[in-house]
């Protein structure tokens, strides 16, 4: 069947970053050429073919590349899950607002199975279901737009789980990161008082996101002891941890209200350590040494509805997605090395298009 609409010059082959084996990015990634461009969606399809503009990298992708072997018969293992780009072809089953050629969009690959199989988006063209694609205004910068969905979906799930509202005081750990920076802004939009934790070098950026108070974790080390001293008499309603610092939960009774909770989405201490901590924090009773506070950790798959909700806030200037750095397609390995430092201030982005 012929597609409803398609661009006239879709090349038969494309470039994409491909993982060849298990290991760190510099050892296992290769910029492959001559890969088949995804097929144009048929007329009755609900898929969309996107010419990729920018791809936002995920810290967890590096951990996956180091720990998960390439499965047999899975095809080229292409990393990453979120992007910005423009529509070059679409089936009639796709949402009407994203079928027009040239429409600027953000999109994501579903997780976890497609990610584990390497059906990622760090490529010049990507074909995805229309349910994973959202229209954005052409005025939005494509670099920052590429980071809307994953960070935004995670931040939205955190504030909805905590039901953050006016009158609450929340602590955001990792306030300069890709999730934390969005989370700070969404909490402020809901009228909460926000205390942001980051390194002193990121203070200006974090204050620019709107925090009411800033804490330099390097200056105030150990951080839990400082929080107990400074906030013991005005404890937090919620501790929102975008880093995954176990000590922050273990010591939380000193600065977190009894009815409050630590909500953690960080795994910077490693996947194995994070899983162990999650089991201990959620299952160990207090009479065996468990912490008398709630601990919440959940999966945060991206969602199209979240992008639809967030995009107008960005267009109106009420929310922004900070970008730490933008790397050319040829420098993809350097981009992964930047995000692996754990010091990125916002999103690390690969510019896929050269024009």
From TrEMBL:
GO terms for molecular function: oxidoreductase activity. SUPFAM superfamilies: GroES-like, NAD(P)-binding Rossmann-fold domains. InterPro entries: ADH-like_N (IPR013154), ER (IPR020843), GroES-like_sf (IPR011032), Lipid_raft_assoc_Zn_ADH (IPR052585), NAD(P)-bd_dom_sf (IPR036291). CDD domains: MDR1. It comes from the Eukaryota. Residues 26-350 form the Enoyl reductase (ER) domain. PANTHER family: PROTEIN AST1-RELATED. This is Enoyl reductase (ER) domain-containing protein.
